[in-house]
Automatic annotation (TrEMBL):
<dbReference type="Pfam" id="PF01242">
    <property type="entry name" value="PTPS"/>
</dbReference>
<comment type="similarity">
    <text>Belongs to the PTPS family. QueD subfamily.</text>
</comment>
<dbReference type="InterPro" id="IPR038418">
    <property type="entry name" value="6-PTP_synth/QueD_sf"/>
</dbReference>
<feature type="binding site">
    <location>
        <position position="15"/>
    </location>
    <ligand>
        <name>Zn(2+)</name>
    </ligand>
</feature>
<keyword id="KW-0862">Zinc</keyword>
<comment type="pathway">
    <text>Purine metabolism; 7-cyano-7-deazaguanine biosynthesis.</text>
</comment>
<dbReference type="InterPro" id="IPR007115">
    <property type="entry name" value="6-PTP_synth/QueD"/>
</dbReference>
<keyword id="KW-0671">Queuosine biosynthesis</keyword>
<feature type="active site" description="Charge relay system">
    <location>
        <position position="125"/>
    </location>
</feature>
<feature type="active site" description="Proton acceptor">
    <location>
        <position position="34"/>
    </location>
</feature>
<keyword id="KW-0479">Metal-binding</keyword>
<protein>
    <recommendedName>
        <fullName>6-carboxy-5,6,7,8-tetrahydropterin synthase</fullName>
        <ecNumber>4.-.-.-</ecNumber>
    </recommendedName>
</protein>
<keyword id="KW-0456">Lyase</keyword>
<dbReference type="GO" id="GO:0008616">
    <property type="term" value="P:tRNA queuosine(34) biosynthetic process"/>
</dbReference>
<feature type="binding site">
    <location>
        <position position="42"/>
    </location>
    <ligand>
        <name>Zn(2+)</name>
    </ligand>
</feature>
<dbReference type="GO" id="GO:0070497">
    <property type="term" value="F:6-carboxytetrahydropterin synthase activity"/>
</dbReference>
<feature type="active site" description="Charge relay system">
    <location>
        <position position="81"/>
    </location>
</feature>
Amino acid sequence: MRVTISRKAHFNAAHRLHRKDWTFEKNDAVFGKCNNANFHGHNYGLTVSVTGKIDPETGFVLDVKVLADIILEEVEIPFDHKNLNLDVPEFQDLNPTAENIAVVIWNKIRKRIQPDFDLEIVLNETDRNFVTYKGE
């Protein structure tokens, strides 16, 4: 019997969608307002879900407090109130699109979750735009 537990979190961050190897015109055509040279921000919503077997001793798939601490350490502290392009090493050479942010978060959390558990990340960039990543 496999059960999914989920934990919600949020962080506020600025970013700019921009490729250094493209001209201003191409960046503007592809990324529009999101290519603002002065950056722009989002109030990101994050849902982290872990699926696995219930531990018969504890009754937990994973202690939600443990999951909350992982999210705090791997996402909230390094991303919250930061400029993703300038302050977060993972985005020095990676365009911080919602898709890429979700994959980076998944990779950071995956290292801390048992390998036999499934992991899913849902990242809300706005109330209407979100991405889901479950690994490869």
